[in-house]
């Protein structure tokens, strides 16, 4: 009996010790700190709030806890006219760390001028942050960053899908704006990559279900947004990106290589629309002579051999392009930023082994945020900060976010959209982003409220020092343009 008693006591002690050391998820928390930075030569005092805010179910019980970081300029007391920017990244299982620590926030990574990681790891002041003109909140969706599900009985489908993601995040944003007293503020959504799917749907959901109206949506490196284009059009639309990348790597013929990129791309875009797309749509009915002529021009603009263009029936997939362009040099190029080079175990094959751009970025971001959260934001937790979190299976059915964005714009005369694309981004290429804009506004009547800007960098164009300056300034100008004069009615003349 004594042995049984001791065994039971040991089990109780072990269980008690485990209970005392398990990781704790704070459903609601908040840590505030004050700071100062210099933006465009002017000192900007601000308050940083790192914390968690719950997502509730229909019975009012918390289902999940979302981590956020909120920056407010403290020398401006009137929030009525102070813009609020709500920032998301993509994935869909990606945290908000990317734009937070490398683009619009008050601090940025220690990286070199082209975006490559340097040591020691950490952050430095961002003299280009948009905090001078807007307050910013960075939001980590469920299972990204420090955000977690807190009710194990809640189905994962509540969070992990195009439309469920939009629905719960709209509820969360509504709560945040209400708690912070920002209903009167001009409001903006910014999303990168899959975050563009998220914010395109969110602006429609917040407008339609919460009656919250926005001044602007900023889409950085946008996805397809559920806009129908078919495999032929989407693949053909890659050619301008191929041309830009080949020009960067000096892989074009001399007549093109000697020109500036801005002179080449309009020519390639016209060819893509007027000749390539009609040709690939014809498929097997395309006459042999016409097929040969199209392949000749495709090879000229892409830096690829005409033979492989014909072997792919004029529809060269991106995976093959990344492997093929510099194959004769034994190098591959990056998916998310094709300026980056890598090399594979073998030179054969039809796709690279890895994306050299993404591996370089992960190298820089993860250590920096863990240091910044603990030492600067003073946010302490034993949770792992998930750069990429477990969000699968992700329900991608019934996506209409691009069309929903167009509807929201037609219903709200004050709503503006700006698209920012990296010319060397092969994951969400710039010409398909332009195609999005044409379909969001098929009438052409909202052209003065939709703009596109390209940068000579990749998916995260702000990692390049030159583009960090211009892209933030473009956001400032967008905010200024989309401001509404007092007393101006929301109507069409």
UniProtKB/TrEMBL annotation:
Q: What start and end residues bound the annotated signal peptide? A: 1-19
What does the entry give for GO biological process?
Answer: proteolysis
Molecular function terms in GO for this entry?
A: serine-type carboxypeptidase activity
Q: Which residues cross the membrane?
A: none
Task: State the source organism's domain of life.
Answer: Bacteria
- Give the UniProt keywords, A-Z: Carboxypeptidase, Glycoprotein, Hydrolase, Protease, Signal
Q: What is this protein called?
A: Carboxypeptidase C (Cathepsin A)
